[in-house]
Write a structure and sequence with these properties.
Layout lengths: L1 E7 L5 E4 L5 H10 L3 E3 L1 E5 L5 H11 L4 E5 L4 E5 L10 H4 L9 H8 L1 E5 L12 H9 L3 E5 L2 E5 L7 E3 L5 H12 L4 E5 L5 H12 L3 E3 L5 E5 L4 E2 L2 E3 L4 H13 L3 E5 L7 H10 L2 E5 L2 E5 L9 E4 L10 H10 L2 E7 L7 H7 L4 E5 L2 E6 L7 E3 L3 H13 L2 E6 L2 H6 L3 H7 L3 E6 H4 L3
Parallel strand pairs: 2-16, 3-14, 4-15, 10-11, 19-20, 23-24
Antiparallel strand pairs: 1-24, 1-25, 4-6, 5-6, 7-9, 8-9, 11-13, 12-13, 16-18, 17-18, 20-22, 21-22
C-alpha cells in the first residue's frame, strides 16, 4: 500500500492545473455503450482511474470487446455481437456504480442478472429506486442470494416519479427507456451535469432523450442504437477540489477549461467566504488570502445544490478560516468520518447527526491519518498542506478511484508532497 507524505505549514499553491474527464460521467457512459447493437463507440477524455478499469471489466464480462488506450485517454467498445446477460460478480462487488449496467443489459437482451453492488462506506445508497422504475416499465424483478434478476420481453414506456433524485437510478432508467416501446417520462429526475453528458451520448447513438438537466426527462423509445464518438465531460469535483486547495493555501491557481456553470454551487460559497473566483479565457482562476476569509454555512443537496462530493474538501477549507463554520450533510448519512481523522491533526469540530460545527483558524499539526472514502482522502491531503509538520495519508485505494496523479498535480503547483510505497516506509 502506498502512502502520501505532505510537508505542510507554508504551502502556497500557484500556477495552472489540467483537469481530467469526470469519473461520475464516464462510468454510466461505459454502461451506455452496451446498448449499441451496431458499430463501435469511442469515448475520449477518459480518466485513468481504478473505477474505470473496474467498469471496463464489467462490460468485458458481458462478452463485449473493450480497448482502453491509456496514452490517448480513449476507450473503444464494440458491443455489436451477441452479449451475455450476467454482469460478473468479482467486479460488480467492488463498485456501487456498476449497478447502472442493469438497465442497458435488460433493454438490449430482455433479461439481466447483476450482483448486488459493493463499494464504499459512506452510505446505504438503496437501489430500490432503480428496481421500482424498471418494474413500472414492465420488468419482473427477483432478488435471490445477492443477485438481482430482471426480465422483460419488451420494456414499455411509463411515467416514473422518483421519490429522490437519485443520479444512478435516473441513469439506469434513462438507458433502459431508450429501447422501450413508447414514451417514458421520469419526474423528479437527477439534474447533474453527468446526466446531461449521458443524454448527449445516448442521443448521438440514435436515442431520443429530451429534458436532461431539468427535473423531467422524456425518452421516446427507438428500435436500436448505434456506436458513436463522444468526449467525456470535465470532472467538476476534481476541478472543485483544486479550487478549494487554492483557497486554503492563499494561492493563485488557474483551473484550465473549468466550467463555471457546473461548479456554480461551490463557487457561490467560495465567493461568500471572500475567495476571489474569476472566469478567464483559459478557465477559472481562484485567488485567496486566508486571513481575510469569513466562515459560512453549507448544506449538501442534489444538483443544483452543493455537491456532497465536495463536502469533505470544503470542511478542510473551513478548518483554516477563522470562526465557526457549519456543514450540513443531507445526502449521505455517514460522510463525516474524515473529521475524526482531522481531529488527529488538531481540528476542533462537533458532529450532531447531519450537522458538523467546525471551529476554524486554530493551529493544525501534521499526523498519521487514514482515508475513509474517496473525497476524504483528498480532504486529508489538503489539510496536510496547511498543517504544521509532516502528514502521512494511508489507504490510498480510495484516492486512486477518483483522482489521477493527484500528488503530482499538487507538487507542480508548489506543494511539498510525495508518494511512497509501504515497503520503504513501514506500517502505521
Amino acid at each position: 500500500m502506498d502512502k502520501i507524505i505532505v510537508q505542510g505549514g507554508n504551502t502556497r499553491l500557484s500556477g495552472e492545473v489540467v483537469i481530467e474527464g469526470a469519473k461520475n460521467a464516464v462510468l454510466p457512459l461505459l454502461a451506455a455503450t452496451i446498448l449499441a447493437s451496431e458499430g463501435q463507440t469511442t469515448l475520449t477524455n477518459v480518466p485513468i482511474l481504478s473505477d474505470v478499469y473496474t467498469m471496463n471489466n464489467v462490460v468485458r464480462g458481458l462478452d463485449i470487446a473493450v480497448d482502453f488506450d491509456e496514452e490517448n485517454n480513449t476507450v473503444v467498445v464494440d458491443a455489436s455481437g451477441e452479449i451475455l446477460d450476467q454482469a460478473p460478480y468479482e467486479y460488480v462487488s467492488k463498485m456501487r456504480a456498476s449497478i447502472v449496467v442493469l438497465g442497458p443489459i435488460l433493454a438490449r437482451n430482455g433479461h439481466a442478472k447483476v450482483s448486488m453492488p459493493g463499494g464504499c462506506t459512506i452510505g446505504s445508497r438503496p437501489i430500490d429506486l432503480h428496481l421500482k422504475g424498471l418494474e413500472a416499465m414492465g420488468a419482473k424483478i427477483t432478488q435471490v442470494g445477492g443477485d438481482i434478476t430482471a426480465t422483460a420481453e419488451n420494456l414499455k414506456g411509463a411515467t416514473i416519479y422518483m421519490d429522490f433524485p437519485s443520479v444512478g437510478a435516473t441513469q439506469n432508467l434513462m438507458m433502459a427507456a431508450t429501447l422501450a416501446d413508447g414514451v417514458t417520462t421520469i419526474e423528479n429526475a437527477a439534474r447533474e451535469p453527468e446526466i446531461v453528458d449521458l443524454a448527449l451520448l445516448l442521443n448521438e447513438m440514435g436515442a431520443d432523450v429530451k429534458g436532461a438537466g431539468t427535473e423531467t426527462l422524456v425518452i421516446k423509445g427507438v428500435k436500436a442504437l448505434h456506436g458513436t464518438k463522444h468526449a467525456v465531460v470535465q470532472d467538476r469535483i476534481e476541478a472543485g477540489t483544486f479550487m478549494v486547495a487554492a483557497a486554503m493555501t492563499s494561492g493563485d491557481v488557474l483551473i484550465k477549461d473549468a466550467i463555471w456553470e457546473h461548479n456554480r454551487p461551490l463557487i457561490s460559497k467560495l465567493l461568500e467566504m471572500g475567495v476571489d473566483v474569476k472566469e478567464e479565457e483559459g478557465g477559472i482562476r481562484v485567488k485567496s488570502d486566508v486571513s481575510q476569509l469569513k466562515p459560512v454555512t453549507v448544506k449538501t443537496l442534489p444538483h443544483p445544490g452543493f455537491p456532497t462530493d465536495m463536502q469533505a474538501q470544503f470542511t478542510a477549507l473551513m478548518a483554516v478560516v477563522n470562526g465557526e463554520s457549519t456543514m450540513i450533510e443531507t445526502v449521505f448519512e455517514n460522510r463525516f468520518q474524515h473529521l475524526e481523522e482531522m481531529r488527529r491533526m488538531g481540528l476542533h469540530s462537533e458532529i450532531l447527526r447531519d450537522t458538523a460545527m467546525i471551529h476554524g483558524g486554530l493551529p493544525l499539526q501534521g499526523a498519521q491519518v487514514m482515508s475513509t472514502d474517496l473525497r476524504a482522502s483528498a480532504a486529508l491531503i489538503l489539510t496536510g498542506m496547511v498543517a504544521e509538520g509532516t502528514t502521512t495519508v494511508g489507504k490510498l485505494t480510495h484516492l486512486d478511484r477518483g483522482y489521477y496523479q493527484f500528488h503530482e498535480k499538487l507538487a507542480k503547483l508548489g506543494a511539498d508532497i510525495s508518494r511512497v510505497s509501504e515497503a520503504k516506509y513501514g506500517n502505521r
